[in-house]
Task: structure prediction
Amino acid sequence: MLNTAIQDATNVGHEEKRAAERLYKLIEHHAEIVHHERLQEENLQTHVHIIFSLSNAGSLKVALSQVGNREKSRVLAFNECFSTGPIRDLSTAEGQQRRQFWLMEHDKEAYFSNMINQEHQIERMIQTLKTIPESKTVVIWCADNAHDQTGLRFASYLLRGRKSVHVVNVTQILKESSMQLNKGEIPVYQSRIEREIYIEIVKTYGDGIPLDSDLRRRYESEWLELAGQDHVLRFWEEDGVIGCEENRMDALILQSVAELQEQHHSGDLVKAGDVLDRIFEISRQFVSYSYIVHRIWFLVSEGVLMFKGLPGFPHQFSIGLPKA
Result:
């Protein structure tokens, strides 16, 4: 509308020009109001929280509201699964383009999500992180999985010029506190933490724990190492992120299919969605659904698995082992 008003104010007749000028001034006035309101919001904000998915960002915003800290908090979210896809030279335009090309071919759902949510794209987020005022407390939220931990190292590298960075590792907090008592295994994904427990974590640890200088340098160094590799899959093992071969999960896919088939009538195929749930349950790794589906279709193309139904989302087709 603004571009049209500017063009009309220059190129049309007298009456249309006056109308275009009024429209231009109205839009300009509204933009100034919005900008002023945003500046007021930013002045009230004392904390900038960085998190690595849009869904987790939504949960964090709700929890911050519950504990009365929403107004003073800005939440920035990467819209990526850092455990899958290439991350070589990701802080450069070339590296970002390489990742987008890979997603376009192997993970169209993530690719189109990035196109829609442009504010959360890597290029935009890099610029946003660089402009965070030193007066704000930066808090990075993560859990012990390859996605969050890769994101933590990336964010630490991008923020290497700041005086201080704080972290909330929800997995470590649950291990060291009594919050998870009698509630089973400690979740390795933030989304699996019970709502009441998550709100308690945000209330108690919302300011984060400062990273000491040695750990910050270690994370920066580990990021440079990861960003120099050509792996498209990463696991969290022995308290570290490791690059894996692309077929690392294939054996687990076949194992999960075989175990689920044993629970059904002989020869029955099983829902691909059930296979994915089993894989996450056994592996306790955070890998995108679409990456596993990509590997399932590779195994189907190789004749190692058979399928029934049309290719699509995980719950839209069934798979099984070929009959002997």
